[in-house]
């Protein structure tokens, strides 16, 4: 099964095109603090506008309970216009007579942001009536929002069943990158998985051990695996109640021929604070009053050696407490290795998740990876092997 893209969309001059984006961006005092996500929609919106369509942007913002002026899309029209380099209008509702009249008055090539879809209960409920009301505004539906594709909502999934549906350029690029990373990857494949808790990524780890050749576990979640194997991790963040699940994942990995890499050299400290007194130790030498806060240089080198024999890498999560020095060193060093291998053409690298993007930006290599997804929950669910409703609705036999 495949999906249609803008390349399959014929003459759109004068047509009303509903484009599902994700304008749920970070803001402070009414201003966008990070426009990365907005910029990702420029190719689709600009192309449709240039081709003469009436471009109508659908999105949610926050989690409003009914209409809430604090979560109106009105404040997003101007920032979107800035990254597009052309004016963007605002429609005070996303359904109804007022919205229909506004759309009717638009000229070919105009772009407008519709009001927050979550102001209506029918959005999250994916109600047929609300889907029909949205559909009355458009002739064509384009989904360009992979980050909301794990939601079976009216604007993310329902519309694809009642209007001709296409993947936008950002969605197209994301799906292509993910297919190369885990769908039909060039082997060997490595997965670098970090973060604080095993509990949030049990399904991810369980799915990946049957898909990849090397599973590199870091961050605090590695502590749970070490503890399950009988290692004393001192006061390190860990989840003792998940020891059995951790051992089951290790057993599944062994049965699947997947090599699991756990850190054997770590950076420890008695205080969880920037610049705290710390020391480098073998993982078996962690004192009872110490916490593991990063992987050590030898552990980085071992992971780097494994990456050098791989052709594909999927990355989600940091290797340590990257938010504070000196416990960012392991994540930064390994990220730079992956970036260097990517630059030399040896490695296809795909990364995603909020903390991951922040960590790669911190390491100064975000632009050097083959593809970096801004999706959070959707990226994680994809790594778990789940069907994403917003993607499934676009698929055609």
Structural commentary:
The protein is an alpha/beta fold. The protein has 2 domains: about 1-170, Phosphoglycerate kinase, N-terminal domain (Rossmann fold); about 185-385, Rossmann fold, CATH 3.40.50.1260. The chain is about 35% helix and about 20% strand. The chain contains 15 helices and 19 strands. The strands form 5 sheets. Strands 6-7-5-2-8-9 form a 6-stranded parallel sheet, with helices on both faces. A 6-stranded parallel sheet has the order 12-11-10-16-17-18, sandwiched between helices. The chain has a 3-stranded antiparallel sheet with strand order 14-13-15. The radius of gyration is 23 Å and the shape is elongated. The N and C termini lie close together (about 5 Å).
Question: Briefly, what is this?
Answer:
This protein is an alpha/beta fold. The chain is 35% helix and 18% strand.
């Amino acid at each position: 099964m495949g999906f249609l893209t803008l390349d399959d969309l014929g003459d759109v001059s004068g047509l009303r095109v509903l484009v599902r984006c994700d304008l749920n961006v970070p803001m402070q005092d009414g201003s966008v603090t990070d426009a990365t996500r907005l910029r990702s929609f420029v190719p689709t919106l600009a192309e449709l506008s240039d081709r003469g369509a009436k471009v109508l942007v659908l999105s949610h913002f926050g989690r409003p309970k009914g209409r809430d002026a604090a979560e109106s899309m009105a404040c997003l029209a101007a920032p979107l216009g800035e990254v597009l380099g052309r004016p963007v209008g605002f429609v005070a509702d996303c359904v109804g007579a007022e919205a229909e009249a506004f759309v009717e008055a638009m000229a070919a090539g105009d772009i407008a942001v519709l009001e927050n879809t979550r102001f209506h209960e029918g959005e999250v409920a994916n109600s047929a009536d609300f889907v029909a009301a949205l559909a009355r505004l458009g002739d064509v539906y384009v989904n360009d929002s992979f980050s909301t594709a794990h939601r079976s909502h009216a604007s993310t999934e329902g519309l694809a069943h009642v209007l001709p549906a296409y993947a936008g350029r950002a969605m197209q690029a994301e799906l292509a990158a993910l297919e190369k990373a885990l769908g039909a990857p060039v082997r060997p494949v490595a997965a670098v998985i970090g973060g604080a808790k095993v509990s949030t990524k049990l399904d991810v780890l369980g799915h990946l051990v049957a898909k990849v050749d090397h599973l590199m576990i870091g961050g605090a979640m590695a502590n749970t695996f070490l503890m399950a194997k009988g290692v004393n991790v001192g006061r390190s963040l860990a989840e003792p109640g998940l020891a059995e699940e951790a051992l089951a994942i290790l057993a599944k990995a062994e049965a699947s021929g997947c090599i699991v890499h756990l850190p054997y050299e770590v950076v420890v400290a008695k205080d969880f604070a920037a610049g705290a007194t710390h020391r480098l130790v073998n993982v078996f030498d962690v004192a009872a009053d110490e916490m593991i806060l990063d992987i050590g240089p030898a552990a980085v080198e071992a992971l780097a050696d494994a990456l050098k024999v791989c052709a594909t890498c999927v990355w989600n999560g940091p290797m340590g407490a990257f938010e504070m020095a000196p416990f960012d060193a392991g994540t930064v060093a390994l990220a730079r290795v992956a970036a260097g291998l990517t630059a030399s053409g040896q490695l296809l690298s795909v990364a995603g998740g909020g903390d991951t993007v922040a960590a790669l930006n911190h390491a100064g290599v975000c632009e050097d990876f083959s593809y970096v997804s801004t999706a959070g929950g959707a990226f994680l669910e994809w790594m778990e092997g789940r069907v994403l409703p917003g993607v499934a609705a676009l698929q055609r036999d």
